[in-house]
Amino acid sequence: MTFTGAIGALCMFPLRQIIRVCVALRIHPNALTFIGVLINVVAAYFLATGRFITAGFIMVVANIFDFIDGKVATELGAVSKFGGFWDSVIDRFSDLALFIGLIYLYAERGRPDYVMVAAVASTFALMTSYTRARAESLIPKCKVGFMERPERIVLFMIGAFTNRMAAVLWVILVLSIFTVADRIIHTWRELRRAEREASA
Amino acid sequence: MSTKGALTLPARVLWHAFFWTYERATWQYDLMVIAILAFVWLTPPAWLGDPTASGQPGLLQLMLRLFG
Q1: Does residue A172 fall inside a structural domain?
Q2: I need a labelling partner for A130 at 20 to 30 A (CA). Which of A25, B40, B66, B68 fits?
Q3: pLDDT of A53 above 80
């Protein structure tokens, strides 16, 4: 087993118990998704006020909700197209809330350079999701590029708990740019291949 | 020769790191995570002009102080 696989397996143990409780209480998965974004907004407030450790703990709680909603939907037999759509839309709000918290913090501290880093990183974080969603309306799958939402969230937590948010923002920025580029190139190649096959 | 074939090993590693196609929980993913954590924790915050941690030493500086 790989190092990251072992960490994932370790985290799954408490998550399974939480999923079981939510299923027993028959909490609707869409409600879990919505609670997740509300808690993320609270985390963003603590980021904006520079209280990173508190923000980190709140992000952990928020992302438990974020993570389990899909699993609870499956176990309750409540999987729906709208649920998938709702989850994607709410995830974007959660992402943006955290970035806006940081933008406020850096603006308040008179650091326009990091306001720009956070703003551009948030743009590419959004574009990462958009490029995949749009690509998958044209080709069957576009799951390339490293910096997806789980990676971003874990990086935010690491940045908050260890007070290394600037380094984390640079990593998110650079790898999100490459992820977007990767998805554009992949889609272009797949469409070109499909066109060639159709004309052959 | 293909574009990829013309690349040397370090360039190929960078190519695969940036034009990522691997799944999570693979050894390539582990390596990428280690590289990212090394950058985040070892880089002295002052080098990046970190607005919230500039006064603090990076892990690398701490290790140099302890063992240097």
Answers
A1: yes
A2: B40
A3: yes
